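quick q for whoever's on today - can somebody do inverse folding on this one?? i tried earlier but teh output was garbage lol. tokens:
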């Protein structure tokens, strides 16, 4: 065994402790990828077995039975039925919740009847004990015919025994039970026999699944035709066969429970979980508590991430300043400083938000409250084409759309998941905040209603609410145009409240950050370098003219050097390809009240919305100055070509509305592409959001101007 790598697949019902066991076995020896053809995470890892052998472990998505309905259930099903070319397991560890044994045994016995090498890992025995449930493990082993090991992943108990059982099963020292848990021959004797002539390696129960789901398997046309012929010959009824099987299984499970399990009186007092749910799921108090939890989540992400984000920005700012002072002025130093370093900063500055957000979400999941949030909000979400599981991505979008879109993976229904991804960027994220602050301070008077209600604060709140309302409205409209024929089931198990697993929280935070940096970061880096090139280079004639003017002004010495440098930067930017683009789009944005300089800011802030403020500072010849009022004063003094004031109330509000709705974030587009595995939806996302932003800004400007 010491030289052999054992391939293990962890399977089980949702909330059975499967992921906890995976984390306990693998620790930090984990990798995260995607299952072939789907966007769901594939967690794999390594562990050392008791005899020194290495085990490669894959954590398959949770599923309730071998009759899949959701996309994640199909992933597990194909592995179990032997139709996944990439994943072949030597041993299947079936994780079973001891406190819900009857329900979990349905899936377990189905896997056993596939004649797979199975080890049953019994989790949550402590919770079962609290419920008064006693399990006779030796008797359970005899009834099932497979090894049963009690484990507690949170405390590491039973792991050594589990590894030993895996080794013995992989070495064929535990034999696969020859007797089926149900009478498959009674279900479909003749069709099974005929199908096994085509596929001799398939078990009796596996043959039934070939008859039911062969259209979804990777079979040849002739094989599918042969199976269809068998179904027609014997008038094979899928629904009747499945229903009969389930009834047979629960009859056997009932007998097993009688001989191997002792259960308490059903009139026993309710557990702490039930009492807590009476409060948290209350028809009135439940929603107030939910709002309080979400408020704390939002505030925590906003404020906790502020400090590491400031440190990262300071680090990159200091690095850029040091390089600027010590490197020769050349195109390659400009590329390094304003392209590579700026691009890396734009990637890493999101990492604290991603880690903190997913850490807090993992805490909510571990404690069991996340399922309650989905339950409470399902009715509202479903009315606009989403479901209860969409609420967390939408709320998370207030911090950052990137991790919010990544968290939409928890939504099983493909249409609802896609709708959530498409509308989440409409939620005002923290990157919009600098834009809102500068524009509100510029055009909204700092007055108070009733002496204490800030008008500027009301406008800020209105911008956030506007994005949320538009997200729900767009989802309601889009649901009629996305034709994904997949039934939506909101079947939700409310797990027991438990203490969080801090190791799991840490591993999730690190894993999500790594995914963002390695996957989305590549695309962000490419676009950052492209934006640098567009802002740094232009037609030779234009750029030479700027250089000549700069040299003449410097030689004349009639202006302060700082003013000459500021004018040089602005003229160079105007002559660059980005400046040309700004002038090119000016006719289109003039009806919104914008000029070419705002046009350039719209283009450059596509890298990240907060870039808008820095770009405006450069365009309006403002050097580095800590006094925010100076920038606002310069913007207030800015004039249009005809000499009229540029930043009027109409222009300022129009620009705020534009940033509420516009897709000004390449990071979001990059992560949308990664999650949907196509450029189709990011393009649609960009087009519809830009369209809404333009039309709403146009309407606002024309009304207020």
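ok took a stab at it. sequence:
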């Amino acid at each position: 065994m010491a030289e052999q790598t054992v391939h293990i697949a962890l399977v089980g019902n949702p909330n059975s402790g499967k992921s906890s066991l995976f984390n306990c076995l693998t620790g930090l020896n984990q990798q995260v990828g995607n299952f072939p053809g789907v966007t769901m995470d594939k967690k794999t890892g390594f562990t050392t077995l008791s005899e020194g052998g290495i085990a490669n472990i894959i954590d398959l998505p949770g599923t309730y039975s071998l009759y899949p309905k959701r996309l994640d259930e199909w992933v597990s099903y194909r592995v179990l039925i032997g139709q996944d070319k990439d994943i072949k397991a030597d041993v299947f560890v079936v994780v079973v919740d001891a406190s819900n044994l009857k329900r979990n045994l349905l899936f377990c016995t189905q896997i056993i009847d596939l004649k797979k090498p199975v080890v049953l890992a019994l989790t949550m025995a402590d919770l079962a004990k609290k419920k008064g449930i006693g399990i006779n493990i030796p008797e359970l082993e005899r009834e099932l015919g497979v090894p049963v090991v009690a484990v507690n992943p949170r405390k590491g108990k039973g792991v050594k025994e589990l590894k030993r059982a895996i080794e013995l099963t992989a070495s064929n020292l535990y034999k696969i039970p020859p007797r089926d848990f149900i009478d498959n021959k009674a279900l479909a004797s003749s069709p099974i026999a005929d199908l096994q002539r085509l596929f001799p390696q398939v078990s009796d129960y596996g043959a039934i699944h070939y008859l039911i789901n062969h259209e979804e398997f990777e079979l040849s046309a002739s094989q599918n035709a042969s199976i269809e012929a068998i179904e027609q010959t014997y008038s094979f009824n899928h629904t009747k066969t499945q229903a009969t099987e389930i009834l047979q299984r629960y009859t056997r499970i009932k007998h097993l429970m009688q001989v191997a399990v002792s259960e308490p009186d059903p009139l026993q007092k309710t557990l702490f979980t039930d009492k807590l749910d009476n409060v948290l799921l209350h028809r009135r108090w439940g929603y107030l508590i939910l709002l309080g939890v979400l408020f704390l989540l939002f505030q925590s992400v906003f404020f906790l991430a502020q400090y590491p984000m400031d440190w990262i920005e300071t680090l990159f700012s200091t690095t850029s300043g040091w390089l600027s002072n010590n490197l020769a002025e050349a195109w390659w130093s400009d590329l390094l400083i304003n392209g590579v370093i700026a691009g890396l900063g734009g990637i890493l500055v999101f990492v604290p938000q991603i880690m903190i957000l997913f850490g807090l979400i993992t805490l909510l999941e571990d404690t069991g409250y996340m399922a309650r949030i989905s339950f409470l909000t399902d009715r509202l979400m479903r009315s606009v084409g989403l479901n209860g599981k969409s609420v967390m991505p939408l709320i998370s979008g207030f911090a950052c759309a990137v991790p919010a879109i990544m968290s939409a993976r928890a939504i099983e229904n493909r249409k609802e998941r896609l709708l959530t991804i498409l509308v989440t960027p409409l939620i005002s994220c923290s990157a919009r905040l600098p834009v809102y602050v500068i524009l509100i301070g510029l055009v909204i008077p700092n007055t108070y209603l009733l002496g204490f209600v800030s008008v500027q604060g009301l406008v800020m709140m209105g911008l956030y609410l506007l994005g949320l309302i538009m997200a729900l409205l767009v989802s309601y409209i889009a649901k009629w145009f996305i034709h994904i024929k997949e039934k939506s089931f909101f079947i939700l198990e409310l797990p027991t409240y438990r203490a969080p697993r801090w190791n799991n929280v840490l591993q999730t935070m690190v894993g999500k950050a790594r995914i963002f940096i390695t996957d989305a970061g590549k695309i962000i880096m490419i676009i950052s370098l492209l934006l640098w090139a567009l802002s740094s280079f232009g037609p030779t004639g234009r750029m030479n003219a700027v250089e000549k003017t700069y040299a003449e002004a410097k030689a004349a010495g009639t202006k302060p050097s700082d003013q000459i440098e500021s004018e040089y930067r602005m003229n160079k930017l105007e002559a660059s390809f980005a400046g040309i683009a700004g002038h090119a789009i000016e006719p289109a944005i003039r009806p919104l009240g914008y000029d070419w300089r705002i046009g350039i800011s719209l283009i450059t802030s596509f890298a990240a919305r907060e870039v808008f403020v820095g770009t405006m500072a450069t365009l309006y010849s403002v050097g580095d100055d800590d006094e925010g009022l100076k920038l606002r004063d310069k913007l207030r003094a800015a004039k249009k070509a005809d000499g009229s004031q540029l930043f009027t109330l109409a222009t300022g509000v129009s620009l705020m509305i534009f940033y509420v709705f516009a897709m000004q974030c390449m990071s979001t587009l990059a992560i949308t592409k990664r999650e949907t595995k196509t450029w189709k939806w990011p393009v649609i996302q960009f087009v519809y959001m830009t369209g809404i932003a333009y039309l709403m800004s146009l309407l606002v400007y024309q009304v207020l101007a």
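fwiw The CA atoms of residues 536 and 576 lie 6 Å apart. also Residues 621-629 have pLDDT under 50 and may be disordered. so keep that in mind when u check it
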